[in-house]
Every structure is written in C-alpha cells, then in structure tokens.
Amino acid sequence: MSDLCKRLQNVGEAGVYRLNCAPDDLRKSAAECGYVVFEANLADARGKGEVLAELARVIAAPDWFGHNWDALADALGDLSWKAAPGYVLVLHGEATGEEMLNDILDATVSFWKLQDKPFWVFFA
C-alpha cells in the first residue's frame, strides 16, 4: 500500500486542500484505496448555475438533484449511487465568487468524518 493511500485512509486528516502532488499519483492512490474520484473543471464555470451543473455532472447526481446549493449539499452527503469506502473530489480551477461552495465542501467533509468515511477535496 502506498504512503499516499495510507494517508487518504486517515479520516481525521480528510479536508479541503491544495493539491501538492501529481494528479495521476492521487488518482492511483485513491484507486488503490477503492475510493471514488470525482474531477470537476471549474475554471470555465461562470456563476452558480454552471458550477452546480459541472458538479452535478461529475458526481452523476440523481434525477432529484435540484441545481441549487441545498441540493448539492444533499447529494454530496448521500452518494449512495457511488458507494465507496471514501471519496476524493478534485476541483480544477476555482469558482470565483462562490463562497457558498467552500462552506458546503467543509460541511461535507465534516459529515463524512462523522460516518467514519474520508471525503477529500483538492483544488488543483
């Protein structure tokens, strides 16, 4: 087991970070852990609607997804359609002016910690 995989399994360290390794290394280590990796390109997203659409696309959100912040929080706190021992969300670019997204990501990490399941977010 790689060192990165061991680190990804540490629920206590899960959080929102800047990616400081090669994306391929992260993908390999997450796969080694059996985690689902979601990768979103927010660099071209203009406003809330496009950010939500991109995130809904990458997590393969179910039909009930309402394309609002509450729906995103609900979907990230469910993920039953992508059951896994842990999750990694890689966000390429940043959603300028979308502070609510950061709050939702922090809350999602906290929720999954309570489930004893790591949820990692990396800004690449």
From TrEMBL:
Residues 37-123 form the Barstar (barnase inhibitor) domain. SUPFAM superfamilies: Barstar-related. It holds the Pfam family Barstar. It comes from the Bacteria. InterPro entries: Barstar, Barstar-like_sf. Belongs to the barstar family. This is Barstar (barnase inhibitor) domain-containing protein. It comes from Sideroxyarcus emersonii.
